[in-house]
Specification:
Layout (H helix, E strand, L loop, with lengths): L10 H21 L22 E7 L4 E8 L15 E5 L10 H8 L4 E5 L15 H4 L1 H21 L8 E6 L1 H12 L1 E5 H12 L6 H4 L4 E7 L4 E7 L13 E6 L20 E5 L14 H15 L2
Parallel strand pairs: 3-4, 3-5, 5-8, 8-9, 9-10
Antiparallel strand pairs: 1-2, 2-4, 6-7
């Protein structure tokens, strides 16, 4: 989502986002460079008897990145077990919003027996989302970073929550969070080393004739795990930049607002006849309202569309 780039008229967005940034800075100062600091929560501290949302700060030691997540466990009545695993949904917020700003969707899945993991992608130390087109190039670093985070959280979760099915995951994302989800499904993940790329980027900068697409990333891939074949379903709320995968193995639903168009190629043309992709546009829906702060009628409509799609 591009809430930070679009006038919202809702000061609560800005206040909550600034609060998260301040919290991340404070935690960074407290923890220093020690990923073993006792103030940082980990997946090992999950209370499996707690139905209320649990806030965790999970540390990616390889990237020295502390990722806030919110965890929603289904009620005991669903009897999740290693031999009878319950499904998993991972949700990503729009740019400028918090991972906790989609309670109406997270609770819908939780109430239907899903483990829900809400991920905060943007941290205080991250560069701002690019305003310069072509976005498929200039925002690639943001989407790649987010895809790595989703994969990392998923791998961490499966270690401590074996009673849930992490082999057939549903991804839900609003705007930029949807772009991240789709990027993971189409591009996979790569791990990068910035230090190894510094000298390379300096030498590349000497050539002013180099195209933007060639020079847009200063990161050098050092390893790759390929595509995320554990994604069974993607639901996007008005994501606008990354083309949906034309992949018969992934069921997809894209719920569209009415005020901004998607970029060319993001949604399939009628002539493509892609049977695994459903596109539903909500009349009078605004891009920036597809979250907890939106009008109740819109949240109800989104819930109804998702429920029908998921057959809840």
């Amino acid at each position: 989502m591009e809430l930070a780039l679009v006038s919202q008229g809702k000061s609560s967005y800005i206040f909550k986002y600034c609060t998260l940034i301040l919290l991340a800075v404070i935690l960074s100062v407290i923890a220093g460079n020690s990923v073993a600091n006792s103030l940082v929560n980990s997946m090992a501290q999950i209370d499996k008897a707690q139905v209320q949302p649990q806030s965790l700060l999970v540390v990616d030691t390889l990237r020295q990145r502390e990722v806030p997540i919110e965890l929603y466990l289904p009620e005991k009545s669903f009897a999740c077990h290693v031999d009878q695993q319950c499904p998993v949904m991972i949700i990503g917020s729009g740019y400028g919003l918090l991972h906790t700003d989609y309670q109406f969707i997270s609770q819908l899945f939780q109430q239907n027996g899903y483990l829900v993991v809400a991920i905060q992608h943007e941290l205080a130390t991250d560069p701002a989302l690019s305003r310069t087109p072509p976005f498929i190039q200039t925002r690639a670093e943001n989407w790649q970073r987010g895809a790595i985070t989703v994969d990392f959280i998923l791998q961490q979760s499966r270690q401590y929550l074996p009673e849930f099915d992490f082999e057939h995951v549903t991804l839900v994302g609003h705007s930029n969070g949807g772009d991240i989800s789709v990027w993971l499904a189409t591009q996979g993940i790569s791990l990068f080393s910035e230090s190894e790329s510094e000298s390379e980027s300096e030498s590349e900068s000497e050539s002013e004739s180099e195209s933007e697409s060639e020079s847009e990333s200063n990161l050098k891939p050092v390893s790759s795990t390929g595509y995320a074949d554990y994604i069974a379903r993607i639901i996007t709320l008005d994501h606008r930049r990354v083309p949906l995968p034309r992949n018969a193995n992934i069921t997809q639903l894209s719920i569209r607002a009415s005020d901004y168009p998607a970029d060319e190629g993001v949604l399939p043309l009628p002539s493509e006849q892609v049977t695994t992709i459903s596109v539903v546009t909500i009349k009078d829906a605004k891009h920036n309202d597809m979250n907890d702060y939106g009008p109740q009628w819109l949240k109800d409509e989104i819930v109804n569309i998702i429920s029908e799609h998921m057959q809840f």
